[in-house]
Amino acid sequence: MSGKDKSEITGLTREALIEAIRLGRGEFGKREIARALRLKGDDKIALKFVLREMLDEGLIRKEGRNAFALTEALPSVMVVVIHDRDTDGELLARPDKSRDNPPVIRLAPGEGAGGRGSAALGVGDRALVRLVQEEDGNYEARLIRKLGQSAHKVLCVLSKGKGAPRLKPVDRRSRHELVPAKGEAEKAKDGDLVLCRIAKEHRHGLKTAIIEEVVGDVNSPGAGSLIALHSHGIETGFKDEELAEIARLEPVTMGDRTDLRSVPLITIDPEDARDHDDAVWAAADDNAKNPGGWVVLVAIADVSAYVTAGSALDRGALRRGNSTYLPDRVVPMLPERLSNDLCSLREKEERPCLAVRMVFDKDGNKRSHTFIRGWMRSAAKLAYGEAQDAIDGRDSPKGEPLLEDVLKPLWGAYRALSAARERRGALEIDAPERRVRVGEDGKVLGIEVRERFDAHRLIEECMIQANVCAAETLEQKGRPLIYRAHEPPSLEKMDALADFLQTIDMKWSRGEPPRPDRFNRLLEQAKDGDHYETVNEVVLRSQSQAVYSTENPGHYGLNLRRYAHFTSPIRRYADLTVHRALIRACKLGKDGQTDSEASQLDAIAEDITALERRAMAAERDATDRYIALYLAERVGTEFDGRITGVTRFGLFVRLQETGADGLVPISRLGDERFIHDEALHALIGQHSRDMYRLGRSVTVRLEEATPVTGGLLFEMLTPPEKGPRQSPRGRGKPQGRPQSTFKRQPRKKGRRR
Question: For the chain, how big is the Rg over CA atoms in Å?
Fold first, then answer.
């Protein structure tokens, strides 16, 4: 160094150098550092040696090819996990890899909001971001791309059959197998489910993958659910911080709550329910000014007494958004000590509740309502069938003792509420729900249609009225809330519906507003005809999906001006936010909605809407896999079914016996070429004009059933019907369009109003 000791260089000190590197935020190389410190001559030469010393000592690190960063700082590009929102609703993140005391990472305004073709970022999502360190030591992040489960890891089955080992993705949309990297196949056994990371992509041939986790045997009990949960990124456990909070919880006491223990509230749930978050009671109104009227009490588990805003349990519940219900298990939103114990309205046990007392006239019109923070003891736990049997006069050991004093008044109130619903004109779509029964050994015992009783409708109507009361009260008190919003069908869907109805000689006037009662009349008109099931399905597909929103467009399907979810806080985060808002609005305690939570409701609504969709997708996928497992032993069997979807690549057929959906590829429809006609919702032979049309009853043979993907492949046995020489509305010859107007859609799930 020209005979000059580097420690004697007057223009360069470590303190100044550290400050310059901090100022550079991981983007300064030697030239920028020298410029920032105004180094000249020998000082610029010495800079190289000092930087090397600091690198060796671990004080700094190389950032990219030429830049430097302090080791206490984060790299300029890294993977983060969105874990929370601040009081302004901005997304907060932390490094994907664990670090002690990580700095605050805040997404820049507008980042992660989503856009055309991309979903918004939400709590629990992973993302690749570019970081810029701010003066206070915290970071601002700019989104590079969202990292979904599929973009980061792939769930596969390891196959060690003849030839080289292969990794076969369980997602039926993945067409290509992967090759385990050298030595990776030894990490697992043949048939194991494994999570893989793409290691190398070749211009030609298969991609190479590294096995990061062995999930279990693909043939083990519950594999269908494990695949669905992993595929959709649904966590199955609880973080240490949540479990620590649970361990510290003590049961709440009655305190100054309203004593409801003398009221014989009862729970009516499915026979296999383990958590009970709603109880009901009704009686004739003894007010002389309301002759023939009814008083109805709906009591809901007071989850907010245990899960306070901002706690670890609260953050975990928001991260999950809701419970996920699979054929063989439930992945709960809250730990079992809360969902099945402290918050569950167990029979004969005292529990805290948030209740609404509603008064209706003899015609089912609501006259008044009041919210109560109560202390209750469930008089009985009934299954839907037990309650219905007692009312219908059949043997019901648990229901009969409650018949006169509890059940008959409930049914009296229900008849009034049902009459009001009919006058209101709520949408009444007949969508039977199928249940896959799974034994303890993981085998499918059967697939059955859930019977729907008046007992189901009674509970549903009581819950709807309670939800309306919650929205009305919060609006009246001026508190912000999350609505359950359902908008009318779009114009495009109405045009598509009208086109379809024309093909089966039914009419739909395009000029009239699509009110729910119009759909009800259409369904009634189709009821005794051959196309009833298809019309039901097409009407269902024409509807918008309900969402959570702080804006209130009303609830179209229920034909209600305002509606919020209040009745299931054990399994839905939306309801928990409404409970807290009511507690604050009605001055029912000090553990109500905080200013911080109120400021974040818009973002929370977006998050929980996405999380609900994710749970529904996982539920469908698991159900499809169990059905494929059930039918795998019946390959070669003929089944009656109905065409429920027409696409350019084939027909979707739903089996009458099980409700299972499978594909008849267009290549298996015969020797001639079939072309997709969107207007007719049909595949039409190019030369013969024979066709397969939406809604037609057909017979198919099961050719393949693949439990690992849930895929079913059918062979069409029913010949095509003779088609018209021209498409409706003068469209001429069939058009090869990219997809059918009514493509295969998720089946409706129960109680997701």
Answer: 31
pLDDT digits (tens, 9 = 90+) for 431-468: 778 889 998 888 899 998 888 899 999 999 999 999 99
- The 10 Å Cβ neighbour count of residue 706 is 15
Name the helix (H) or strand (E) containing 282.
Answer: strand 278-284
The dihedral sign for the CA sequence 264, 270, 271, 276 = negative
Query: 495: left (phi > 0), else alpha (psi -120 to 50), else beta?
Result: alpha
In CATH, 150-220 is 2.40.50.700: yes
* Alpha-carbon separation of residue 563 from 155, 429, 467, 731 (angstroms): 39, 19, 6, 43
Structure tokens at 20: 């310059």
Residue 725, C-beta contacts closer than 8 angstroms, at least 6 positions apart: 689
Mean pLDDT by 10 residues, the chain (753 residues): 41 73 78 82 77 75 77 76 67 72 77 51 77 78 71 79 87 77 92 84 75 85 86 86 95 96 97 91 97 98 96 95 94 96 96 98 97 98 96 95 97 98 93 86 87 94 98 97 95 86 87 90 89 88 92 96 98 98 97 94 92 91 92 95 88 91 90 85 90 93 91 94 59 40 39 50
Question: 77-147, superfamily in CATH?
Answer: Nucleic acid-binding proteins (2.40.50.140)
Nearest-CA neighbor of 496 among 351, 646, 366?
646
Domains 150-220 and 635-730 share a fold: yes
Q: For 662-694, what is each residue's pLDDT tens digit?
A: 999 998 898 889 998 877 888 999 888 999 999
Of 544, 553, 546, 552, whose CA–CA distance to 608 is shortest? 546
DSSP 560: B
> Measured between alpha carbons, how far is 153 from 211 in angstroms, rounded to an integer?
9
* Cβ contact 714:634 at 8 Å: no
Q: Which residues contact 256 (CB under 8 A, 6 or more apart)?
A: none
Can you tell me the distance from the alpha carbon of 348 to that of 328, in angstroms, rounded to the nearest whole number? 28
Smallest CA-to-CA distance from 493 within 526, 540, 554, 534 is with 540
CA distance 41 to 38: 10
> Going by CATH, does the domain composed of 6-70 fall within 1.10.3470?
no
Would you kindly state where each structural domain of the chain is located, as residue ranges? 6-70, 77-147, 150-220, 240-486+547-622, 491-542, 635-730
- For residue 311, the 8-state DSSP code is S
Instruction: Compute the distance between CA of residue 753 and CA of residue 413 in angstroms, rounded to an integer.
Output: 21
CB 670 within 8 A of CB 691: no
CATH 2.40.50.140 for domain 635-730: yes
Place of tokens 């393949």: 704
Please report which helix (H) or strand (E) contains residue 522, including its range. helix 516-526
Looking at residue 342, the DSSP 8-state letter turns out to be I
Residue found by looking up tokens 């008064």 in the block: 359
Cβ neighbors of 272 (< 8 A, separation 6 or more) are none
Instruction: State phi, psi for 59 to the nearest 5 degrees.
Output: -75, -30
Q: Is 641 exposed, middle or buried (0-12, 13-18, 19+ CB in 10 A)?
A: buried
The full DSSP string for 644-673 is EEEETTEEEEEETTT--EEEEEGGGS-SSP
What pTM did the predictor assign? 0.76
Quote the CA–CA distance of 605 and 384 in Å, as a whole number: 32
Report how far apart, in Å, the C-alpha atoms of 82 and of each of 97, 106, 743 are. 13, 9, 33
Task: Give CA torsion, residues 181, 182, 183, 188, to 10 deg.
Answer: 30
At 736, phi and psi to the nearest 5? -80, 90
The β-bridge partners of 389 are none
Query: CA-CA distance, 276 to 382, in Å (whole number)?
Result: 11
